[in-house]
C-alpha cells in the first residue's frame, strides 16, 4: 500500500478489501516551490499538502475561509462545489492556529471517512493557509441516492447480520434455563436496531448504504453489544459492521456505546461552584495519599464532583463526576445510565478505604490529571475541547462476574470492577488516560475503530495514556517499566507479568503485523497497535518528552482523518514535527522511529505466506467459500470494490483461471457453494433473498427458492441445497432445505419457535445439524440426521445432559462428524466426534482434554481428512489466539497438524478431495482465497 490506503485498511478489517491503485497526481506547477504535495489514492485530491503560505479570507468563519481556499485552488484540490459538498465538522484553535475539519457529502449524503482538513494561521486579523490533508473522494459517481431498501428491512438485515456474527460458532445453551421457548429464553438478550441515516461507502464509484446501529446484549453470554452496520441501500446486504466501543483490553464481547443519558449531577454556576467546592483527600491503590476535589450539593452531601479547580486558581473547568456503578452490569452502562446510580457520597472529605478499594479515588483523581495534562500542555478544554462534562462510572460487572476491562462508550468512561487477579480497572492511571484519550481522538481525527485506523486509535490512546501516567506519577522515561500499560492492575503479579501491553515490545510490521478480519478484535485494533504506538514511544524516549507530545498531539488534531492507516499516520507525524520547527537532527529521529517499526511506504508487500493464492483481494466478508469435486466457488467484487459481489468458479488446483457464474445485476450474490457439478448461491435483493443454482459447465441459471430473512451456512450436494436462517427477533436459527430438482422444500425443525437447528451439512440426501430443544429441566443439545427421502430423524450418540456446545457438522463416507463441548471451564476446548449415520460406530476423533485437544470452533471434512478451526477464547489477542487450521485423519491417527503457518486469520475452510483444503486468509492484510494440498505440520 501507499499513502492514502486507510480506506483499504478499514475495509480490510471488514473483509471488504479494496486494492488501492494509486491515482498519482503530480504537484501542479503553480504550487509554491517550498510546498510539498503528496498525491491521494483513487482520488485527484492530495492526501497531504505542507509548506503553504497562501492568504485566505480574513472575514467570516474559519470554515468559510477553508472552503474558499479549496475553491480558489481548484486546480490543486479538484474539489467541486466546496460550499455544497463540504460541511463544517468543527474547528480547533491552538494559539494562533486554526484547524478546520470538513466532512464530505455526496448529493447531501455523508461519505464514510470523507474528511478534509485545512490548517491556517491567524495573526493580526489575517489568515494564512499553511497546509491541508485528508481524503476527499473525487471518483464518486452514484446515479441516485434514493434507497430501494426500506429502513425497517435494513434494520432487520442488520440485526440478523449481528446475530449471525455472534452465533457463528458452536451452538450453546442459553443462559435462561427452563424457559418455555427460545424467544422467552432470549428475551433479556434481544438486539434492536436504529437507523442513523444514509452513508456513502467510498468504494470505487461509491456504494449507497443505510447506517444502522444495533444495540442490546449478546444472546451468548449477556455481554453488551453495539455495532455500526452499513447495509447496501440497493439490495439490503449488510456490507460492513464493526464495534463502536473502545476498550482498554481486547474483549471477546462487543460492548455498546452512545452518548450519556439519564440522571445528571446537580449543576452549579461558576460562583456557586466556587463556594461549594470542598478539598478532600484519599488513598490510591498504590498507597499514595492524594488531593481530590469534591462538591457539596444543595442537600449538604459531599459528592465526587470536580469542577476543575486547580489549587488556589478560581477558574472553573468542566464538571468531572465519578459515579458508583458497583455491581451494575456492563451492558446497562454501555450507552446508557444504570438506573438510580449516583456519584459517590463520602461522609467526610477524607475518603476511606472503601473509596480506595472501589477504584473511586483513582478514577476521580485520574480524571483530574488527564484534564490537567491536556489543558496545561495543549490548551485543550476537556475531551471535546469545549469543556463538555466528563463522566466516569466505576465498578461494573458482566453477568455478575468480574469485568476485567474498561471502555469509552462515546459519552463516558466505564471501569470494570475487577476481581481475582485484577484490581478495579481505574487503579492504573494509564487506563484512565487511555480511555479519556479515546474521547479526544473521537472529537478530533475520529479514527474509525477498525483495522489500521482502529489500531492507530488504540496506539494514540496508549501513547497519551502512558505519557499522562509517567507524568502524573513522576516516573522517569528511563525506568524499564515506563513503557508498560496496565502494569498496576494485578493483585499479585509483578508489573511485567501484569501489563496488558508494552510500548517497548519491539513490534514491527514485518514480523508482528497480523491481518485479521473484523471478526476478531475489530480487525486487529489491539493486536497491531503497538507497532504504531511503539514508534511514537521511541519518539518520546529519544526527543524531549514534552516536544514529542506536542508533535503527536498536533498530528492527531491537525493532520489525521478517520480512515488513515499506518503510512498516513507516519506522514502526519513527520509533517507535524516539521511544522513545529523540529531541527534536522530531530527530524532524523522522527523518521528513524517509524523506520525501526517497519512503517515505511510499501511495507505490506513484505508479508509472506506458505500457501498458494487462488484469488487475491477477494473483497468479501463473512460469506465463506465452497469446494468440492475439484471446484471452488467464492463471492468477490471487482478490483476496486465498486461493484456488488458476484460469484466466481475455479479449479481447486489453481489451473485454468476463474469464470463468472452469477449475473452482475446490482444485487449481492453471496454464500457461494459447489459440489463440483453445480454451483449455488444466495442473491440479496431489496425485499427477499433468492437461491440460484447453475451447472459448473455452464447453462441456464435456475432460481430454486427464497428467504425473507438473513441466511448463512449454505451447502450443496447432489439434489439438495441446505442453509440456516436466523430469526432476527429471537436469534434462533433453523435449518432449511430445497430439492433443486423437484422444488420440494422445508425446515428440518418445521420452524418451531421452541427449537433451534444450525450448522448443517448434506450428502446423498441426508442432512446433519446441531439441535437445541427444551425439556422440563432445561435446554438440551444434540446432533441429528434428517433423511429427506423418508422424513425420518436420528439423534447421534451425544449425552444431552452433559453437552454444553455443539459445533459444525460434516458428512462423509465415514458418517457424520461434529464438535462437542462438555466442559466450559477449559477455555472452550472441544472434542471432535464421529458416528455412522445410524448412530453406530461412535468414536472420539480428537479429545476435549489432554494431548491432541484443540479449541475446536468449526470443521470441514473430506473422505480422507478432517480440518478443524481452532479458536481459543481470549481476553487479549495475539497470533496464537487467532483462528488456525489443523488437520487429522477421520480416525484421528497421529493427532492434529497445522495446515498452514501463516500469520493471521484463517477462516471459512472448505475441504476438497484428499487433504486439500481452501480458506480465506488475512495474513497479508487483505482477504485472499488460498489453499494447501497437505498440512504444513508443526509451526
Comma- or semicolon-separated keywords:
939 residues; alpha+beta; Elastase, domain 1; Neutral Protease, domain 2; 4 domains; 7-stranded antiparallel β-sheet; 19% helix; disordered N terminus
Tally of helical runs: 18
- Most strands sheet: 7 strands, antiparallel
What is the CATH fold-level name of the largest domain?
Neuraminidase
The CATH superfamily of the largest domain appears as TolB, C-terminal domain
Strand content: 25-35%
Specify the structural class.
alpha+beta
- What spatial form do the alpha-carbon principal axes imply? globular
Q: Uncertain segments of ≥5 residues (pLDDT<50)?
A: 1-33, 176-188, 251-272
What is the level-2 CATH architecture name of the largest domain? 6 Propeller
**Structural Rg:** 28 Å
The overall pLDDT, averaged over residues, is 87
Question: Helicity, in percent?
Answer: 10-25%
What is the CATH domain class of the largest domain? Mainly Beta
**What is the terminal separation in angstroms?**
28 Å
Question: Strands, helices and their partners?
Answer:
Elements: H1 6-13, E1 36-38, E2 48-50, E3 54-56, H2 62-72, H3 74-77, H4 82-85, E4 86-94, E5 97-106, E6 109-123, E7 126-134, H5 151-166, E8 171-172, H6 182-185, E9 191-201, E10 207-217, E11 224-232, E12 238-243, E13 246-247, H7 270-276, E14 277-283, E15 289-296, E16 302-303, E17 305-306, E18 320-324, H8 353-357, H9 360-378, E19 390-398, E20 401-402, E21 406-408, E22 413-416, H10 429-442, H11 451-472, E23 484-485, H12 495-498, E24 501-502, H13 509-512, H14 521-524, H15 529-542, H16 545-558, H17 566-579, H18 584-596, E25 612-615, E26 625-628, E27 631-636, E28 646-651, E29 658-660, E30 668-674, E31 678-684, E32 689-695, E33 702-707, E34 711-717, E35 720-726, E36 733-739, E37 745-747, E38 756-763, E39 766-775, E40 778-787, E41 793-795, E42 805-806, E43 810-812, E44 815-821, E45 831-835, E46 843-846, E47 856-861, E48 866-870, E49 884-888, E50 897-898, E51 906-911, E52 917-921, E53 928-932
Parallel strand pairs: 18-19, 19-22
Antiparallel strand pairs: 1-2, 2-7, 3-7, 4-5, 5-6, 6-7, 8-42, 9-10, 10-11, 11-12, 13-21, 14-15, 15-16, 17-18, 19-20, 21-22, 23-24, 25-53, 26-27, 27-28, 28-29, 30-31, 31-32, 32-33, 34-35, 35-36, 36-37, 38-39, 39-40, 40-41, 42-44, 43-44, 44-45, 45-46, 47-48, 48-49, 49-50, 51-52, 52-53
Amino acid at each position: 500500500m501507499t499513502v492514502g490506503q486507510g480506506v483499504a485498511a478499514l475495509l480490510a478489517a471488514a473483509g471488504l478489501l479494496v486494492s488501492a491503485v494509486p491515482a498519482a497526481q503530480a504537484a501542479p506547477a503553480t504550487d509554491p516551490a517550498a510546498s510539498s504535495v503528496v498525491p491521494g489514492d483513487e482520488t485527484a485530491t492530495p492526501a497531504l499538502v505542507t509548506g503553504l503560505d497562501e492568504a485566505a479570507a480574513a472575514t467570516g468563519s474559519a470554515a468559510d475561509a477553508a472552503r474558499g481556499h479549496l475553491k480558489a485552488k481548484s486546480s490543486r484540490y479538484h474539489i467541486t462545489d466546496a460550499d455544497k459538498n463540504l460541511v463544517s465538522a468543527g474547528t480547533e484553535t491552538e494559539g494562533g492556529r486554526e484547524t478546520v475539519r470538513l466532512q464530505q457529502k455526496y448529493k447531501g449524503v455523508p461519505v464514510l471517512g470523507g474528511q478534509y482538513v485545512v490548517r491556517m494561521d491567524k495573526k493580526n486579523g489575517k489568515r494564512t493557509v499553511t497546509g491541508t490533508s485528508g481524503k476527499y473522494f473525487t471518483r464518486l459517481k452514484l446515479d441516485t441516492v434514493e434507497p430501494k431498501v426500506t429502513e425497517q428491512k435494513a434494520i432487520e438485515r442488520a440485526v440478523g447480520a449481528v446475530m449471525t456474527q455472534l452465533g457463528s460458532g458452536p451452538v450453546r445453551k442459553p443462559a435462561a434455563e427452563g424457559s418455555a421457548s427460545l424467544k422467552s429464553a432470549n428475551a433479556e438478550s434481544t438486539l434492536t436496531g436504529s437507523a442513523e441515516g444514509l452513508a456513502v461507502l467510498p468504494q470505487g464509484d461509491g456504494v449507497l448504504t443505510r447506517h444502522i446501529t444495533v444495540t442490546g446484549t449478546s444472546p451468548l453470554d449477556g455481554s453488551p453489544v453495539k455495532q455500526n452496520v452499513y447495509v447496501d441501500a440497493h439490495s439490503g446486504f449488510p456490507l460492513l459492521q464493526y464495534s463502536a466501543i473502545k476498550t482498554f483490553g481486547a474483549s471477546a464481547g462487543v460492548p455498546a456505546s452512545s452518548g450519556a443519558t439519564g440522571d445528571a449531577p446537580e449543576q452549579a454556576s461558576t460562583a456557586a461552584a466556587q463556594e461549594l467546592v470542598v478539598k478532600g483527600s484519599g488513598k490510591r491503590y498504590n498507597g499514595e495519599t492524594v488531593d481530590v476535589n469534591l462538591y457539596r450539593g444543595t442537600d449538604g452531601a459531599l459528592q465526587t464532583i470536580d469542577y476543575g479547580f486547580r489549587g488556589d486558581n478560581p477558574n472553573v473547568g468542566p464538571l468531572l463526576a465519578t459515579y458508583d456503578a458497583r455491581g451494575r452490569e456492563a451492558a446497562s452502562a454501555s450507552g446508557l445510565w444504570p438506573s438510580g446510580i449516583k456519584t459517590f457520597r463520602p461522609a467526610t472529605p477524607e475518603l476511606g478505604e472503601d473509596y480506595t478499594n472501589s477504584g473511586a479515588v483513582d478514577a476521580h483523581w485520574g480524571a483530574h490529571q488527564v484534564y490537567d495534562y491536556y489543558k496545561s500542555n495543549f490548551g485543550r478544554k476537556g475531551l471535546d475541547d469545549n469543556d463538555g462534562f466528563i463522566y466516569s462510572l466505576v465498578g461494573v460487572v458482566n453477568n455478575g462476574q468480574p469485568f476485567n476491562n474498561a471502555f469509552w462508550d462515546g459519552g463516558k468512561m466505564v471501569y470494570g470492577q475487577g476481581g481475582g487477579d485484577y484490581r478495579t480497572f481505574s487503579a492504573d492511571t494509564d487506563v484512565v488516560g487511555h480511555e479519556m484519550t479515546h474521547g479526544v481522538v473521537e472529537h478530533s481525527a475520529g479514527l474509525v475503530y477498525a483495522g489500521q485506523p482502529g489500531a492507530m486509535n488504540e496506539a494514540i490512546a496508549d501513547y497519551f495514556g502512558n505519557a499522562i501516567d509517567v507524568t502524573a506519577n513522576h516516573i522517569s522515561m528511563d525506568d524499564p517499566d515506563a513503557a508498560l500499560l496496565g502494569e498496576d492492575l494485578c493483585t499479585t503479579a509483578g508489573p511485567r507479568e501484569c501489563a496488558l501491553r508494552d510500548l517497548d515490545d519491539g513490534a514491527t510490521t514485518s514480523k508482528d503485523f497480523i491481518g485479521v478480519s473484523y471478526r476478531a478484535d475489530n480487525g486487529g485494533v489491539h493486536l497491531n497497535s503497538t507497532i504504531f504506538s511503539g514508534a511514537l514511544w521511541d519518539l518520546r524516549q529519544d526527543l524531549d518528552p514534552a516536544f514529542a507530545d506536542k508533535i503527536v498531539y498536533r498530528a492527531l488534531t491537525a493532520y489525521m482523518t478517520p480512515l488513515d492507516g499506518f503510512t498516513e499516520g507516519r506522514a502526519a507525524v513527520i509533517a507535524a514535527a516539521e511544522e513545529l520547527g523540529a531541527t534536522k537532527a530531530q527530524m532524523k529521529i522522527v523518521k528513524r522511529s517509524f523506520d525501526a517499526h517497519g512503517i515505511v511506504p510499501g511495507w505490506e508487500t513484505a508479508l509472506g505466506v506458505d500457501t498458494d493464492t487462488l484469488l487475491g483481494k477477494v473483497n468479501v466478508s463473512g460469506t465463506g467459500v465452497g469446494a468440492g469435486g475439484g471446484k471452488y466457488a467464492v463471492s468477490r467484487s471487482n478490483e476496486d470494490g465498486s461493484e456488488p459481489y458476484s460469484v466466481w468458479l475455479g479449479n481447486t488446483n489453481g489451473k485454468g483461471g476463474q469464470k463468472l457464474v452469477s449475473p452482475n445485476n446490482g444485487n449481492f450474490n453471496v454464500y457461494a457453494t459447489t459440489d463440483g457439478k453445480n454451483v449455488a448461491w444466495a442473491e440479496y435483493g431489496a425485499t427477499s433473498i433468492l437461491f440460484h443454482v447453475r451447472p459448473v459447465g455452464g447453462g441456464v441459471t435456475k432460481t430454486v427458492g427464497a428467504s425473507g430473512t438473513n441466511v448463512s451456512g449454505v451447502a450443496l450436494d447432489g439434489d439438495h441445497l441446505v442453509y440456516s436462517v436466523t430469526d432476527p427477533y429471537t436469534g434462533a436459527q433453523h435449518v432449511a432445505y430445497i430439492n433443486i430438482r423437484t422444488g420440494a422444500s422445508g425446515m428440518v425443525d418445521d420452524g418451531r419457535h421452541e427449537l433451534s437447528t444450525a450448522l448443517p451439512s448434506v450428502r446423498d440426501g441426508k442432512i446433519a445439524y446441531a439441535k437445541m430443544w427444551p425439556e422440563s429441566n432445561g435446554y438440551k443439545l444434540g446432533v441429528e440426521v434428517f433423511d429427506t427421502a423418508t422424513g425420518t430423524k436420528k439423534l447421534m450418540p451425544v449425552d444431552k445432559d452433559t453437552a454444553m456446545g455443539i459445533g459444525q457438522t460434516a458428512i462423509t463416507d465415514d458418517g457424520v462428524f461434529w464438535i462437542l463441548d462438555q466442559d466450559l471451564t477449559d477455555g472452550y476446548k472441544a472434542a471432535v466426534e464421529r458416528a455412522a449415520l445410524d448412530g453406530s460406530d461412535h468414536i472420539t476423533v480428537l479429545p476435549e482434554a489432554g494431548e491432541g485437544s484443540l479449541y475446536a470452533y468449526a470443521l470441514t471434512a473430506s473422505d480422507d481428512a478432517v480440518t478443524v478451526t481452532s479458536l481459543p477464547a481470549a481476553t487479549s489477542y495475539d497470533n496464537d489466539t487467532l483462528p488456525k487450521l489443523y488437520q487429522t485423519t477421520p480416525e484421528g491417527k497421529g493427532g492434529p497438524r497445522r495446515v498452514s503457518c501463516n500469520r493471521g486469520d484463517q477462516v471459512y475452510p472448505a475441504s476438497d478431495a484428499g487433504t486439500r483444503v481452501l480458506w480465506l486468509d488475512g495474513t497479508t492484510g487483505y482477504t485472499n482465497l488460498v489453499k494447501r494440498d497437505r498440512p504444513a505440520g508443526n509451526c
